[in-house]
Specification:
InterPro entries: FAD-bd_PCMH, FAD-bd_PCMH-like_sf, FAD-bd_PCMH_sub2, FAD-linked_Oxidoreductase, Oxid_FAD_bind_N. By secondary structure, the protein is of the alpha+beta class. 34% of the residues lie in helices and 21% in strands.
């Protein structure tokens, strides 16, 4: 049990009695914050206090005030950007202190318009809307209601990943409050070890308050979502494997999925050409697959903002949901087996109230991994020689808490089975995509032993007492 009186006294010393900054249970600010998570699983937790700092100095003072209590075991902290992490405990905490960073706004271009500084409380719709005024974009989320902070710290993928690598590879600077309350700027020139560790290293090293990212020229984008009947599976996923292995066009981005909802199963391919070429040769392998559900196709010319708004409409904000993932080599026979296993799981859970179930395959092409490496490295440490790969997304959504145990149990068994099958066939990769990872996964182990040792050295250097390892249990932690 945490010492709430001491916690409150420590917080009041630095934040005063301002109810907009220090929110107690039952207050308007507390209820707004705790009910605004992407997933109902996260909102179900009830922290003792929610802090909503408005300045970096307040974050520094909070970390200094709570640090001693955390290290003695009298307090635990959760760090929230916009709250998009779906599993309970990722960005919220029961009975501890949640630091809500949604007041950290701002989308600021530099004078040369070559970089943009973004507060971690922003969502990507605001970023794209501002950049498109200048004919620019950046390597942000594919769904525009996703927040900036956790997205970037997880590594992340964007529409332009084939040419630019992971989203974190476009970061030029992190502004971060360390365990001692010190504010530092981590870049290729300042604290370069911390800079690399933060690119995919999640909340293991400090409280990130802003990121600065490269901007890129941008205009029209062509693409959208194509829907197929289930009998198109063989053709579609053979072509998805061919795309992952052989496609050289770096201006395209593709996601192929199977989905269940409202008693029906369908296949989709989300596809984009980021230079606006209409139905380019690189995507004709997907636009020509039949049978399609043509009345549902959304292929068109739009902008990054327009397409990320479209995908945001598929989000199930506020419902019970989570993600799980596995990384594999592109192999059609393996994908067919995975699909068969997915169809075997469906009857066990599809009668639950409000149930939908997405099962997607997203390629990490060799060009993506090559450009990632050329950008200077990151915590994930994936060699281009390992590519191409598929990130497999498992995403159940449901309504009734009474169904929680049944769904968690079925999906956990499913995930174990997929990994076992892929491993037996020599097609499982160590990497676990942090932005989709299941809460029980050891994401850091998936980064490889060399990366773990480097990150542990960074943690020891910048957080020698282990505040962010011991006192911030949410997310995926480095081994102590």
């Amino acid at each position: 049990m945490f010492d709430n009186d001491r916690i409150l006294n420590s917080l009041a010393t630095v934040l005063g009695q301002d109810s907009e900054l220090l929110c107690n249970p039952g207050s308007e600010g507390y209820d707004e914050s705790n009910s605004s998570y992407f997933s109902a699983l996260a909102s179900a937790l009830k922290p003792s206090f929610i802090l909503r700092p408005k300045t970096i100095e307040q974050v520094q003072e909070v970390i200094r005030a709570l640090g001693p209590l955390v290290l003695e075991g009298s307090c635990r902290i959760a760090i929230r950007g916009t709250g998009h992490t779906p599993f309970a405990g990722g960005a919220n905490i029961q009975d501890g202190v949640t630091i809500d960073l949604r007041n950290f706004k701002g989308v600021v271009l530099d004078a040369e318009e070559s970089t943009v500084k973004v507060g971690v409380g922003e969502t990507w719709d605001k970023v794209y809307a501002e950049l498109e005024k200048h004919g620019l974009t950046t390597a942000g989320a594919r769904v525009n209601n996703v927040g900036v902070g956790g997205f970037i710290l997880g590594g992340a993928l964007s529409l332009i990943s084939s040419r630019r690598g992971f989203s974190c590879d476009s970061v030029t600077e992190f502004q971060v409050v360390l365990a001692a309350g010190e504010l530092v700027r981590a870049s290729a020139d300042e604290h370069p070890d911390l800079f690399i560790a933060l690119k995919g290293g999640l909340n293991n090293f400090g409280v990130v308050t802003s990121v600065t990212m490269k901007t890129y020229n941008s205009g029209d984008v062509w693409g959208g979502v194509v829907y197929y009947q289930p009998e198109a599976f063989t053709d579609l996923f053979h072509r998805a494997c061919d795309f992952a292995r052989d496609e050289l066009d770096e201006e395209v981005h593709v996601m192929c999925s199977a989905g269940y909802g409202f008693g029906h199963t369908a296949l989709t391919c989300v596809m984009y050409h980021t230079q606006g070429q209409v139905n380019p040769p690189s995507l004709q392998r997907f636009t020509s697959v039949q049978p399609q559900i043509e009345q549902m196709s959304s292929l068109r010319t739009s902008t990054t903002l327009g397409f990320t708004e479209e995908l945001a409409k598929f989000s199930s904000v506020g419902r019970r949901q989570y993600w799980a993932t596995v990384t594999i080599k592109p192999d059609f026979d393996l994908i067919q087996t995975f699909y068969d296993k997915w169809q075997h799981v469906l009857p066990k859970v599809k009668d639950t109230e409000g149930f939908t179930f997405s099962f997607g395959f997203q390629p990490l092409t060799k060009s993506l991994l090559k450009h990632s490496q050329e950008a200077g490295g990151n915590a994930m440490d994936i060699s281009p020689a390992d590519g191409p790969l598929f990130i497999v997304l498992i995403n159940p959504v449901w309504t009734n808490p009474a169904d929680d145990n049944r769904i968690f149990g079925a999906i956990e068994d499913f995930l174990v089975e997929l990994r076992q099958i892929a491993s037996e066939r020599g097609l499982l990769h160590r990497y676990i995509f942090a932005n989709y990872a299941y809460w029980k996964d050891d994401v850091m182990a998936g980064y490889g032993a060399d990366s773990i040792e480097r990150m542990k050295a960074v943690s020891a250097k910048y957080d020698p007492e282990g505040l962010f390892q011991k006192g911030v249990p949410g997310g995926f932690k480095l081994p102590l």
